[in-house]
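I would like you to sit down with the pair of lines that follows and say whether tokens and residues agree.
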Amino acid sequence: MPRGSSLNKVALHVKRYLLVYSILSLLAGLIIGYEYKGFFKAYGNEVKNLIISLAILTIYPSMIQLKVEKLNSAIKKATCVAMGLTFTFLVAPPIAMEFARFLPSKQLSIGYVVSNVVPASSASIGYVLIAEGDIELATVLAVLSLIGAFLAIPGYLKVYASAVAVNLPLGKIVQSLTYTLLIPFAIGQLTRYLLIKRRAALSVINATAKVPEHPCLKGLEEAVIERKFSDLKACVEGRLENSIKPHLSLTTMLSMLTLIALLIANKAAKLVGHPYIALKVLGLQLLMLALLLGLITLIDKVLGVSYEDHMSIALISATKNQSVAAAIAVMALGSEAAIVPALVPVVQAPVAIAYLQAAPTLRALLKG
């Protein structure tokens, strides 16, 4: 069996059972962390550095898959883009800040806020693809949510910290954003250019050099030939992207599962001693997602938004990159705050899947 085919099967298997593996990772982290709590206490700095490294390793592949060039098409769906950004940056964060007040400690509540302000992930675009939503709109929203996060995350954290009388190190937050978003984004886009865009362009140049002086080509307009090679370039880019996608997907998922286990292990003693913490976080996030998705669905119905556009807006606005939240929490907010992004995926994935299952009902609701 070819290696690529085998890797693709493994990636598909992990993706299919990601929720199961997430729960198993959480339980493994809980058991290991509680059994070896002395180790995690003694080597706190080393564990912190490992968490940050794993978080960046989880984030980096999604930055390679981010198609910044799609921003050119944002003007075509300016209204839907504006709606998506409104839900992402003006609706979800204030709701999260209100819900955060129900958590038993200030660190946990700040961790909850950051978990709901971080940008969408590549998995969010994957959900849109499964739902047959507008991928172009979803990509634009994902890119803009990433850009907007540079202002939204420190801004909302500062507002919430002032409200609950907590002194947050703004410098550390900016530093964490640099490590978790800016650097992975820059390196990811450079990698995308080298692995996909540049190789596709070279393939087209080679193809152009090999075009024969065929009688059928002599009558064609130069613009037509140029368009054909533009289509060829897009096709080659698509094939190259599909060839590396299983590697990126598997790296992201395995890193995320390890990250969940490590985050939980680092605070296992606290979670075992106070199990209601996990139940509160999971319950609040379930309510948060249900409220947000319900609100988006209602408003989109009233405004006559199409099913395809709605699924892009809803899934990009509601599902967040918890690896980014975990890294920010560990670097700038404290290890207790990182408990929240470790738990959120256990709720986020099944809610997204349940929403996808409701696609026929949503399609009928938003029809016309």
Observations:
- The domain at 3-205+219-365 is CATH 1.20.1530.20 (Na+/H+ antiporter like fold).
- The chain is about 85% helix and 0% strand.
- The first helix runs from residue 3 to 16.
- Confidence is low (pLDDT under 50) at residues 214-220.
